[in-house]
Structure formats: C-alpha cells, structure tokens
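Notes from the 1:1 (GR / supervisor)

We went over the backlog. Supervisor wanted to see one worked example end to end before approving the batch request, so GR pasted a single chain during the call. The sequence is below; no edits were made to it. Supervisor asked that the structure be written out right there so they could see what the output format looks like.
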Amino acid sequence: MKYKIILGALLFAVCLISLNIGSYPLSFFSVSSDIWHHRFSQASVILWEIRFPRMLLGLLVGGSLGLAGAAMQGFLRNPFAEPGVLGISGGASLGAVLVLYSGLSSAFSLALPLGGIVGALIFAALLYFLAGPLSIHALILSGIALNLLAFAGTSLVLNLSQNPYARLEIVFWQMGSLQDRSWNHLALAAPFILTGAWMIWKNRNALDVLTLGEETAQSMGVNLKRLQWIMIFGTALAVGAGVAVCGSIGFVGLVVPHLLRPWVKHEPGKLLGISALGGAILILGADILVRLIPAESELKLGVLTSLLGAPFFLSLIFQMRKRVN
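Structure output shown during the call:
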C-alpha cells in the first residue's frame, strides 16, 4: 500500500506541473477558478483546450504502455517483452503512415488515429492466427515477423512518397509527441485504451497462476487460449490507440515494469496496477522535460524516451550476462 501512495502522490504532482508548464505562463489554480466561474480568458482557453487534453492523453497513453508492458512480461514470462515485441505498435504505426501517405489526414482530422487503431487490430488478428493457440515461442516469432513487415511497409511508403513535406510529416509523426493533441483525439483514443486496459486488468490473477507453469495453470482452471486472445487484443486496443494518436513512444513498457517489479515481490498481477501508474508518471515527466529543454522546436517525446530507455535496456543485458557467468 505504501508504494501505491508514493506513486499516486508523484502522479498527482506531475499532472499539476504538466498543466502549469508551457511557453505561456499561467497559474493553474487562478485559471481553474476562471473556468469554474465561466470567466473565459486567453489563459483559461490555453489551459482547457491545450494543456488539459495533453495531460490526460499522456496519463492514458503512459498508463496503457506501462500496464501492457507488465502484462506482456507476465504472460510471455520474458523480462524483455513489451508491447512492441508483438508487432502491434508497428501495425498501428503503419496504419497511420498509410493515412498520411494517402492524404486522408488532411481531408479528415480524425483519419490519422482511426488508421492507427485499424492497423493495430489487423496486426493483432494476424498475430493471433499466425501464433496458434498455446505456443509462446510462436507468438514471439510471429511478433518479430510482423514487426519486420510493418517496418518494410513504412519504408516502402517513405520510398514511394513524392512529396517531401509528406515524408517529413511521416518522420515527425513516428517520433511520437503529445503536442497539439485536442479533446477530439482524447475522445477517440480513450474508449479503446480503457477497454483494452480493462481486458488486461480483469485477468491479472491468471498471470499469477501462469508463473507456476502452463500445465499447472491449466489444471487450476486457466484457459490459456482465452488468456492469449485477451492479452493480444487487449494490448492491441490499449497500445494501438495510443500509438495511433501520439505516434511511436518506445521503451516505456520495458523500463517501468523492471523498475517496479521488486516492489511487489515479482508478482505479475500486482505489477499491473503500479506499472500503469509508473508509465503515466514517466510519460508525463518526459513530456514536461521536452517542454523545458531549450530548442527552436519542441523535442519529440518518443526521441526522449528512447534516449532514456536504450541505456537501460543495455544495462539489463549486461546484468543478465553477469548472472550467467
């Protein structure tokens, strides 16, 4: 319970800081009073129309990445597993890139997130049918193959694009960001993210039983085929919707569960909730940092999380090598 209070306090703090940080200085509490009493000003419009949806979207996307990362590591029993390993993030990215390439994003503002969500669901369906019902190794290999397919498709789109501005837009979108996201983006992504998170959370006890082995889990009433379906499509909904709206933001699902696992004595079910809190804290903290770093244009969120996550990933590899030796 103590760690939940600590994480909850940290999350509340970064949410308040996120609402106060920006190029336009404002006081959250005084502007909130204006909004409450319907005294609309430039500061209140900035807070309500720009910073609130940005903060809430960061909360949802970060939470879903942390939750899905912990779920994947528990289900696959692999410490290096995270949502991207299944190819679902790649499918969402490819779907959004195709929308950018076709020009639909210019004609219809919500076409970009919708394309990403559809791409994630298509790749999730492919993964389920390729991997088969019970093979964990086949699931990982299928995810690798689908990631390669998504990368090849994205590279092909960039190669075929004749418009340099479209290429630039695709590249910038793939870097991931919460900048310029609106209530419309939040309203579109939130139902998918919350539904996927609920599917995963509802089956947290099955992940604890799975640590005893597949045969033992089956003997205790765990339907592994159903659990696999839930984990794949729950992750597709939660992570795919986030990628569709914000672009690719990597390493959150890998780093957060590793940092917080010792707090729950390595129990996968208990890890889900605190990983969701930790993921939200990491994303919001990183988003605050990109706004504080002096630069002509705002640093992309996905770039910062990769800069933080890559060294952590390498340190995990070295730790495992030491244990083996």
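Supervisor's comment: The chain has 15 helices and no strands.
Batch request approved.
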